[in-house]
Amino acid sequence: MKRKLGERSSTKRAKIQSSNCFHKIMEYGVHISDERYIMTKDINTISKQIAADMLDTKLKEEFLISLQDSLDDIESFKLAMIPMERENSEKSFNNDSLLRLLLRIPVIAESITELLLEKLPVSEHPECNLAALIMSQLRWMLDVPGETVITKLTQVLPVCTLPVQKDIVSGLPEILTDEFHDEAAVFLLEHIQTHPDLVPTILEALSEMSLSDNVLNEVYEAVVGQMASLSGDSIPSALRFLLSTTDKDRAISSIRDNITFESLSLLDEGNVSEELSLECLEQMLRFHCDIQKTWLSHIQKTVKLTPFDFFVLLVIYRVSNRPKLVLAAIKSRLKSGALSSHLIREVYSKHSVTASRYNREVLLLCQSFMITHPNSDIPQSLYCNLFSIGDHQTKQEVVGCLISHIGSGASLEIDRSITTLNLIKDKTDKQLDRFASLLDGLIDYLNVLNIFQVREVMLLLVRVSSGGGSRIIDDIHIIVRKYLSHSDAKLNKLGVVGACALMEALDSEGSDEKSSELERFIVKVRKAVAASTTLTGLLYDELTDTVARLNERGVETCYKMFVDVFESTYIGDEPAPGRTTTDILCIEGAETLNENPYIAYNLWELIEKKAFEKVQLQWPLLRLVLKSCAASTSDQNLKDVDSLLGCFFRAYPLDAIERQYNGTLGLVAIINIIIELINGFCEVSNLPMRNKVIKRVINLTELLDALSHCSVPSNLLLASFDVDVCKSKNNKSSSSSKQVDNEDESPPTADPSRSPGVPSKVKPIKVSNYKRVITSYRENMREIDVRALNILNWNLPDTYCDSSEEKSALDIAQIVFLLEDLLSKCRFKLKPRAVFGKESSNVGFASLLKISEVQFVEEVVSRLPALCHILEENVSEPPPSPSSPDNSSKINSTDDDIREMETNPYKVKIFELVFSILETIFHWPGFGYNTQISLQCFDVLASRLDSHTQGPLSKRKKCALQYIMKYYYSCQNFSSVIAMLKCCQHICYESEPSLGLLAKQTLEKSWVITDDEKESKFKVNEAIGYLIEVYVTHTGDAAEDVLNDLVEVTVAVVETPKEPKKYPMFTKNSLPAIYKAVMVQVISYLQIMSKPGEEKLVVLDTAVALFGQMIALIKRVSSRPILRSALVYGQKFLEGFLTFGMPLLDKLMKTDHDEVQMLIKRLQACTRQLHHVTCHTKSNRDVALTSRVPLLKKFLETFVLKVKEMLAANNCTEAFWVGNLKQRNLKGEEIKSQLVGDDSDHGSESSKRSKENNDNDDDDDDGTLSELSVSSDDESKDQIDAKVEGDSEDGSLSVCY
Questions:
Q1: Based on CB atoms within 10 Å of each CB, which residue in 862, 1063, 1191, 1228 is the most buried?
Q2: Which runs of consecutive H residues, i.e. helices, occur in 139-198?
Q3: 307 vs 351: CA distance, rounded Å
Q4: DSSP 32
Q5: Where is 30: in which H helix or E strand?
Q6: CA angle 834, 837, 842 (to 5 degrees)
Q7: What is the rounded average pLDDT for all residues in the chain?
Q8: For the whole model, what pTM was predicted?
C-alpha cells in the first residue's frame, strides 16, 4: 500500500515538474517535495523577485499562461492552494500557499483572482471542497480588486451548484474590503427572491458586512418584506440579521408583526421551524441585555399576547441573568389580562412539542403564580397542560410541586392545589393514578387542613385508588378509624368526612354484595358518632353530598335507612294529649298545604321534652331524606315525600311565641325546617308543587320578621356542623341584636347634606330586617342553597297556562329577601382572596365552598333573565328632558320621590341589590378571562332591548350598557345609583359621554342617606370620589372645563360657609375624598401630553394652574387626609411634570421664553407649599405622613436640577440663584425650632448649611432647603436676594434636598 502511494506521489511530482510554470517557480526558490511546495528562500525574497520580473509584460503573460495550464490539472490546483513549508525549518509556521503568494503581488493579483473565480463552476471534487479552498485563497487579501470579484461573481454564481454558491456567498465579507460591501449587498439582494435556498447564507453574509445607512435600510425593507414567505430554516437567519444590524426597537416591532407561530405551523417543517426560531432567539438574547429589555418593553405595551410572545417570555426568563425582573414583567402581563387562559390553551394545543422544551421554566412560573396571583386561573391551567404534555419525570415534578403547595399552610394555596389535582384527574383520566404512591403522602397533611380541604383530598384519593391504588384505600381506612376514635373534636370531624369518602369507594361496583357492605359501613359509622350530636349532624350533611355521587343501589340503600328514621322521630299524625288543632302554628296560607291538620312536625313536643339533640339533627336529616329521594327519581318532583312540604308545625301561635320559654329556639328551628324544605323542593317542575314552595318562602319571610322582635337567648342550637364557631359568638349576636333594637328606636335624623329646598324632617326608610336577622343568627340557621335561587325564575312568564291551578307569584318582600341572600353569596364567593391573609368565617356559606367560582357564576348568570324581569317590573318613568321648562324641579329629590321611598322601600331596595349583584359579577377577575360566561351575560342583557340583533361582543356590550343605563331614573337612593354606574363602568372600556352625563346629574342631586345605607356601612365619601372619577373620565375632550369646574367648587367649599348649590354632595365632611379624587384627575389630565396631536403647552399650563389651586387649599384646611393626599399626589404630579413637561419646556425655551418662565414660577409656589407640608409633618412628629416625605424630596431635587440644566443649556445661568429657605409651617410662619443664630448673615450656601446643622443636630432631613429663583431680565441680583430672604411667593421656586 505504501508503495502505491509513493508511486502516485512520484507521478504527481513528475507531472508538476514537467510544466513550464514549475520551472519558472524553481528559479525563484520553490520546489516540490512530499505533495507540498518547499521554499528554499525567505517568502519576502521570493515575492520581491517575482514582482520585479512581472514588471516585464512578456514575462508576465508567459507566466500567467503557464500557470493557467498548470492549474487545469486538479492535483496541481490543489497543491497550489496548500500552505508551503520552509526548507530545513525546525519550527512549523503557518505560511501562505503558492496562490496566496502570487495574490500578494499587485501586478498579477487581478489576473490571479479572475483565474481562481473562473475555476468555481468546475470546482466539484469528491475528496475535498475545492470551492471553499478557492475562496480561502482570496480571504483577507488587500490587493484583491473588489470590482473584479463582484463582476466575475455576477457571471459565475448563476452557473454554480448550490453548495458552491453557499461557499461563495459566505466568503464575500472576508474577501471584499468595506468600500465594496454596499455594492456586494445590492448584488446579493437580487438573489434573495430568486434563490430562496441561499437566503440563510446571504443574510449571514450581510450581517457581517459594513453597510451604509441607505443600503442597510434597503436590505432591511427587503428582508422584512420577504419574512412572511421565508422557509423554516431561513427565519433564524432573518432574526439574527435584524437583531444584530438594525435598530433594536424597529427590529423587534417588525419581528413581532411578521412572525407568528400560526404561519410557522403551515410550513413543512412545522415544529422544527418553531424550535429553530426560538433557539436562534435564545442565542441572541443570552448575551444581549439591551435586546431583552427592549423586547420586554414591547411585550408590556401589548394588550393581548400571542403564542410567539409567550415563548419569547420563556426564552428571556431562561437566559436572563436577572430573572426576578423578567418574572415581574410576566406577572404584570398576567395581572392586566394580556396573559389569559385562552392563550395557554392555544399554546399547548397547537404548539405542545415546542412548549415541552420549556417545562422547567413553566414549572417555576407556576410555583410563583400559585402564591402571588390568587385570583387567576393561569397557574392551574399551566399545571394541567404541563402534566398532559410532559414526560414521566415532568409529571412527577408537577405532582410533587402540588403536594408541596398543599403542605405550605396557606389556605388559598392549598385550595388551588387541590383543585388543580382534580382538574388533572378529570383531563388525563388514569395518568395521575401512576403517582398514587406520591399522593399517598397527602394523608400526612390531613391534620393541618380544614374540613373542606380534607373532604376534597379524601375524594381525590378515592378517585385515584380506583385506578389500582389499593394501598391508599387501606391507609384511608386506618386514618378514618384513628380519627373517629380520637378525643379531639376536629379529628373526629375529619374522620366523618373520610368515612363518607370511603362510602363512594365501596359503592363503585354497584353489586348487591357491595350495597350490603355499604349499609353495614354506614351503621358502623353511625354507632361511632352516636354520642356526639355535632358529628351525627355532620355525618348527615356529608351523606347528603355523597348521595349525589352514588349509583342507584347506593342511593336506594341510604333512602331506606333514613326515611323511616325521620318519619318515626319527627312526624306525628295525632295531636299531643291535651292539645287541639287551635294550638297548631297557623301561618297565613299554610292550611292549604296539607289537607290533614293532624299530620305535622312535632317540633314543640321535642322542645318541651328538652330533646335538643333531636331538634338539632332534624335539619340535616330532613336534607338527607329529600336529597336521597330526589336522587332516586328522575323527574325531581319528590312524589314519595311531597307531603313533607305541606306539614303543619305543632307550636304556639306567632303572637304568643315570644312569651314562651325557648320560644326563640323553636322559632329558629321552624325557620331551619322551612329552609331545608325550600332547598329540597326548589327544582320541582309541576305548578302545584311550585306554588307550595312559594308559600313556604312567604312563611319564611314572616318568621324572620317575627324573629327580629325576639331577644337572643344563650341556648340556641348550632346549625352548621362543618365549621368551628367561636364560643363568644352568641354574646356577639346578642349585643348586635340589642344594637339593632336601639337603632330601630332611635329618632329619625335628617341628612345634613340636603339642600334647603327639601324638607329637613324625613322619616327613615324602613326596609326589612332580613339581612340583620340572618347576620345575627347566621351560625344558628341553615344555609339557603344556590339552587334555591331558581325560585326567582318562577316569576318569569312561562307555559303553565293550561293548568287549572292559578300560578302563585313572589311578593316584592320575598324577592328582596332572595336578592339579599344572593348578594351575600356573591360577595363571599367572588371576593379577592389573599394568599397569606386571614381567612374569613365560612359560617353560613359552607355549600359555596363545595363548588368552584365558575360554577357559581354560571348559576347566577342563569338567573339573569329573572333579575332583568324584576327590574322591568319596578321601573319608574324618567324625568322630563333638559329642555323642559319644569326640569329644574327634577334635579333634586322632590317630596314625591321621598314619599315613594317611604311608602314602597322594597322597590327602592331592588335596584340596589340587582345592580350590586351585577357589579360583583363584572368585577370578578375571572369574568374577563371566561369568554363564554361574559358572552352569555352580555347576550342576556342585550336581548332585553327591542332593537337587539346578534353581533360581535363589542356590539352586545354596547346594547347591555344601554339597557342598564335606562334604569338610572328608577334608582331612588344613592347606593343604587353608584352600583348602577359601577356596572356601566365595568362594561365600557372607552370613554362614554352618556355615562359622564349621568355621573354629573348624580353629583348635582341632593341625596338622602337612608338608615339602611347607614347600617350597611355604605361609604358615601368614597362614592363621591368615584363619581368625580367617572365624570372626568367619560367627558372626552371637555375634561379641561370639567376639572376647572370641580376645582372651583372645591375651593368654594373651603372658602364659603354655605354648601355649594351646584354640587350639594360637596360638603366639608366629604372634602378629603373630593380633594383626593380631584388631585388624581389632575394628574391623569397631565398624562394626556403623552398622546399625539394634543396642544401640549396648553395642557401643561392648565394642569399646573389646577394643581396650584389645589395645593393652595392646604393653607386653609390642614386635616391629615388632605395633607396625605398633598404629599402623595404632589410627588406624582412632579413625576409626571418631569416626564412629560420638562422635555417640552426644553424645546420651547428658545422660542417661548416668557411663557416657560411664568409656568415655572407658578409651579414654584406649589413646591414651596409642599415644603411647608414636609416641615409641618416633621415638627409634629407624624410618622405616617413623614414616611411620604423622602420620595417627594427626591422629585423636588430632581426638578431643581432639571430646571438648572435647562437654563444652563440656553445660556440663562444668570436667571437663577440657589440659596436656603427657612423652615415654615402650613400658614407660612417660621418654625421657632428651626431658627438659626444669626439671621443677618446671608453668606454662602455652605456656611448657612453648617450653621443649621450645628443648631439642629437632630434634624438631618429638613435642615436645609435649596432655593431656585427664576428672574426676569429686569430683575437684579439684589431683588432675588430679597425674595429669598423674605421667603416671598412671587418669584422663586423652592424645593428640599
A1: 1063
A2: 146-156, 162-175, 181-194
A3: 9
A4: E
A5: strand 30-32
A6: 90
A7: 76
A8: 0.77
